[in-house]
Write a structure and sequence with these properties.
single chain; five-stranded antiparallel sheet; 16 helices; elongated; disordered N terminus
């Protein structure tokens, strides 16, 4: 995000000190992800003034600013979440880096020398800035803890509580949003705020998608798009092969944290395009749009259907005790009356191929499997197999997450061990499961 340093200067003309210009350039560099430049700047300044006795406070602060630049670089690189890194250097974890800075900055504030005249003015100014940086480091330590909490969830075989995750991000925003408000820190405050806003919208979008709410999900995805654009305003992007996916090239020094957020958004858009295909299919050039997605789920289903000779592939939504009454695809007035679905209608196929609606005569068996195997389907890695001898029909069922299940039907007997079918079911399950995106945090994007 571009920061106007003139505005920063104009707000502090009355209390301007020589150190302010260094701090302005330093924080702008951090806000532009130029961590090496920020570190080099303060280290050069430290070498210039370290021998001058009147600058001992400034020298100490410059040392901490150098450490902060390194910490910010490691934070944005996500390397601290890599299991190998944690195993080898557990004592140097990212959270301890920031809490160490918090401790040292607290000591700096207390022990700052109170000399008269210009030195006192400078020390008073620097102490105030240190307090702001102290608050920023506290916020960072808690954000690190949040990302560390996400990583193990990729191996969770039961539903993730996205409401709890959203409440953590909301608390981070409410607690730390105004705690480092000094205009000099505005570049890193903007980055911090936008990062949390992107996370909030991504989690809200996923939460709404789990309740199959079209418009609220769409609005949150639009919000993510605009916030990511602001967050990446100072990043130079290379045009990718898939223009619809706003994922920056790894060759232009893009922070892996930004890459992960962009991939999370792209994965959500791909998922949205499958879950609400019935609402989107009437749009012009939808095929071209789907081809540009991170994952074109419809194309994957079509290819599988053809190769496996399946009769039907359906995505089923359980409407029982849903947040809102199921109204079907498309836009609906919030006050328009709709009856609560019952019986077989309470398990609609929100996506079906090759027909828009699955074979009705087979739906009793599908609903029976979803209910009778409900306990087994709590394990999201499980694929249920059933062969109906009376109708000579084979069913494969897996629960994706929340109220959604994937059902594949064959009008002849298939082997329970068919590797191609199981691989397809497992791949769809893994990709559509929201927690899958957390894996990218502990890996190079």
């Amino acid at each position: 995000m571009a920061v106007n340093t003139n505005n920063v200067s104009s707000e502090h003309q009355s209390t301007s000190v020589p150190e302010q210009s260094i701090l302005e350039v330093y924080f702008v560099a951090l806000g532009q992800y130029n961590y090496d430049r920020a570190k080099e700047l303060v280290e050069k300044e430290r070498e210039v003034v370290r021998s001058q006795s009147n600058y001992s406070t400034w020298v100490s602060m410059l040392s901490m600013l150098s450490r902060l630049a390194v910490a910010e670089k490691n934070y944005a690189s996500l390397t601290y979440l890599n299991p190998k890194w944690l195993f080898g250097k557990k004592e140097q974890s990212m959270r301890l880096t920031y809490t160490g800075l918090v401790t040292d900055l607290s000591s700096f504030e207390i022990n700052g020398p109170g000399q008269p005249g210009a030195v006192q003015q400078i020390n008073s100014f620097l102490s105030h800035i240190c307090k702001q940086i102290h608050n920023f480091c506290e916020a960072r330590a808690e954000t690190v803890e949040f990302y560390d909490k996400l990583c193990p969830m990729v191996n969770q075989r039961t539903d993730v509580d996205y409401g709890e995750l959203l409440s953590i991000v909301d608390r981070l925003t409410a607690t730390h949003g105004d705690h480092f408000h000094h205009p000099l820190l505005s570049p890193i405050k903007q980055c911090f705020t936008l990062e949390l806003e992107v996370l909030q919208s991504l989690l809200k979008a996923h939460h709404h998608m789990l309740d199959w709410l079209f418009l609220p999900t769409l609005l949150q995805l639009h919000n993510v798009h605009s916030k990511l654009e602001n967050l990446g305003a100072n990043i130079r992007f290379k045009e990718g092969k898939k223009s619809g996916v706003a994922i920056p090239s790894k060759t232009v020094g893009v922070p892996p944290l930004y890459q992960w957020l962009a991939r999370f958004k792209a994965a959500q858009v791909s998922k949205f395009s499958l879950y609400f295909y019935g609402s989107l299919c009437k749009q012009a050039d939808l095929k071209g749009h789907l081809a540009n997605l991170l994952i074109d789920y419809r194309a994957k289903i079509i290819a599988f259907h053809k190769k496996a000779d399946a009769m039907n592939v359906s995505l089923v939504y359980d409407t029982n005790n849903a947040k809102e009454v199921f109204k079907g695809h498309g836009y609906h007035h919030p006050d328009s009356p709709h009856e609560v679905p019952t019986g077989l209608d309470s398990y609609p196929a929100i996506f079906s191929y090759p027909e828009e609606k699955p074979p009705i005569k087979l739906w009793p068996m599908v609903v029976m499997l979803l209910n009778s195997k409900a306990a087994e389907l709590t394990d999201l890695d499980r694929v249920i197999y059933s062969f109906d001898k009376t109708q000579s029909m084979t069913y494969f069922v897996t629960r994706l997450e929340g109220r959604f299940s994937l059902v594949v039907i064959f009008n002849f007997k298939k082997s329970e061990r068919d590797s191609y079918i199981k691989l397809f079911m497992q791949e769809m399950n893994l990709n559509l499961r929201g927690s899958n995106m957390f894996a990218g945090l502990g890996q190079k994007s």
